[in-house]
Specification:
Elements (H helix, E strand, L loop, with lengths): L11 E3 L2 E3 L3 E6 L6 E7 L2 H18 L4 H17 L1 H12 L3 H21 L6 E4 L5 E9 L2 E5 L7 H12 L3 E5 L6 H13 L6 E3 L4 H10 L3 E7 L2 H13 L3 E5 L4 E5 L5 H13 L9 E7 L3 H12 L20 H17 L2 E4 L3 E2 L9 E2 L2 E4 L16 E7 L2 H9 L3 E2 L1 E5 L3 H10 L4 E4 L15 E2 L12 H5 E9 L13
The structure holds 2-aminohexanedioic acid.
The site of 2-aminohexanedioic acid has 10 residues, from loops.
Length: 497
């Protein structure tokens, strides 16, 4: 029996109050085409209200000792744990990912809560010797102030926790714009914060479009950091706008991730890794595998094994436990995938399996796309260079590890990569030379754990990381403090004797 929401219309959460927007739009279940709830389409004045509340709340919140701020995150973690099943079902309804994956995503949020709560007792700075006698020197992390977070629909709760939890434990206040496709996780998380006793204004949720709400956040002078996960085009514009305002910005903008399969690989394991990372979440992960760089000696065998395994992929509503691949988020996403099938064929890649939309009685009003396998792709083809964000994977044959690494690195993104090999020398060479932020050995390209840094090189981002202790660098400033207890003026670099 599916879970239902107690409201037909979500509201913004501003200064601890639930505030309706003047306009609203429907949130559609991508597996059925049915409306689940209405979400507000807010405007710049809602953003301004949220920032005003956040600014006021942050001053007090920063003075709460960090271990106490952390206790609140423990409570949030416990509530997430209690509601894991409810949240997972709602997540499948709004995003489409299969229930098992939804549970995994909610678990990422739970893990992040307990991990970042632990940081409340660390938030380490450094004490260091000073150059001069009777002088003390240290550095410490301090909150930035009001931070803006903009999160995508593909991981509506996990990514939100990667950003909001470190921001809050570090003493900031947050203004959050979730994706309009998946606002239910934001609504539920805000309710959990409210119940956990977060002071009014420390977390504010403003629903709406990027053009209106996102833009107002990026240009608001009292928001000092923007942390964004989403498309490359939008991210570049945000970075340019923030650059002009000298606003700190952290970006995560996707990948063109590859699995390398060497001639000594355990091919059955490689097939499992490829299937899970290429077709899980219908390929709609930043970390999804969309290229398989295969040694020519095992190419045919791998193709055959992949084709056989793909036959078992049941496609449909993620709430059905027999389904392995859920729907595509919306019509625009599906049309983009279809375009890339045409592009791949025109470029001369060979379509081995899939390549079409699934419709008909079993699929109700949802958008579904058949898991797709191209082979004989070359590294420079558009299907091997551009992010498709769907269940489409292209095999690229190579003849050596060096060539595999060159192909892996020859794209404008650098999020995740993987190698299947039994040879320890190749393992170490690959982990050194693959120029991605995440490298897997004998596993697919997905499945990052929250206590490690998440992000990538080149077009994937701008040098910052989500999650891990590194996320604190986005949401804190470093302050260097010198205490001179000599009782006289000591000039640095001069009075050294
Ligand atoms: C994303 O696709 O943006 O590593 C996040 C993974 C997940 C997170 C993916 N833990 O695949």
């Amino acid at each position: 029996m599916a879970i239902s929401l107690e409201t037909k219309k979500l509201a913004n959460f501003i200064d601890g109050k639930w505030v309706e927007g003047s306009k609203a739009t429907a949130v559609i279940n991508p597996a059925s085409g049915e409306e689940i709830v209405q979400v507000p389409l807010s405007d710049a004045s809602n953003v301004d209200d949220a920032v005003t509340a956040a600014k006021r709340a942050q001053k007090k919140w920063a003075l709460v000792p960090a271990p106490q701020r952390a206790e609140l995150l423990y409570r949030v973690g416990n509530l997430l744990k209690e509601r894991k099943e409810r949240l997972s079902q709602l997540l499948t309804m709004e995003n489409g990912k299969v229930l098992e994956e939804a549970r995994g995503e909610v678990q990422e949020g739970i893990d992040m809560a307990f991990y970042m709560a632990g940081e409340g007792r660390r938030l380490f700075g450094q004490t260091t010797p000073a150059e001069l006698k009777n002088k003390f020197a240290m550095s410490q992390r301090v909150p930035v102030g009001v931070v803006g977070i903009i999160t995508p629909w593909n991981f509506p709760i996990a990514i939100a926790t990667w950003k909001s939890f470190p921001a809050i434990v570090a003493g900031n206040a947050v203004v959050w714009k979730p994706a309009t496709e998946t606002p239910i996780m934001a609504y539920e998380l805000a309710k959990i914060f409210e119940e956990a006793g977060l002071p009014n204004g420390v977390l504010n949720v403003v629903f709406g479009t990027g053009q209106t709400v996102g833009n107002a956040m990026v240009h608001h002078q009292d928001i000092r950091v923007i942390s964004f996960t989403g498309s490359n085009d939008v991210g570049r514009n945000i970075a340019a706008d923030c650059g002009r305002q000298l606003k700190k910005v952290s970006l995560e903008m996707g990948g063109k991730n590859a699995v390398i399969v060497m001639d000594d690989a355990d091919l059955d394991l490689a097939v499992e890794g490829i299937l899970w990372s290429a077709f899980g979440t219908s390929g709609q992960r930043c970390t999804a595998c969309s290229r398989v760089i295969v040694h020519e000696a095992v190419k045919e065998e791998l193709e055959n094994k992949l084709l056989a395994a793909m036959k078992d992929l049941t496609i449909g509503d993620g709430l059905d436990p027999s389904v392995k691949v859920g729907p595509i988020i919306n019509r625009a996403g599906l049309e983009k995938i279809k375009d890339y099938i045409g592009i791949g064929k025109n470029e001369g890649a060979k379509l081995l399996e899939g390549g079409y939309e699934l419709s008909g009685s079993g699929y109700r009003g949802g958008q579904f796309f058949a898991p797709t396998l191209f082979t004989d792709a070359t590294a420079d083809m558009r299907i091997a260079q551009e992010e498709i964000f769907g269940p489409v994977v292209s095999l690229i044959p190579v003849s050596s590890l060096e060539e595999a690494i060159e192909v892996n690195n020859g794209v404008s993104f650098g999020l995740s990569s993987s190698i299947f090999t039994q040879n320890v020398n190749r393992v170490f060479q690959a982990q050194r030379d693959l120029d991605t932020g995440i490298v897997y050995v004998n596993a697919g390209t997905t499945g990052a754990e929250i206590h490690l840094p998440f992000g990538g090189t080149k077009g994937t981002g701008n040098g910052h990381r989500d999650s891990g202790v590194q996320a604190l660098d986005v949401f804190t400033e470093w302050k260097a403090v010198y205490v001179d207890y000599s009782g006289k003026l000591q000039r640095a670099q001069i009075d050294v004797d």
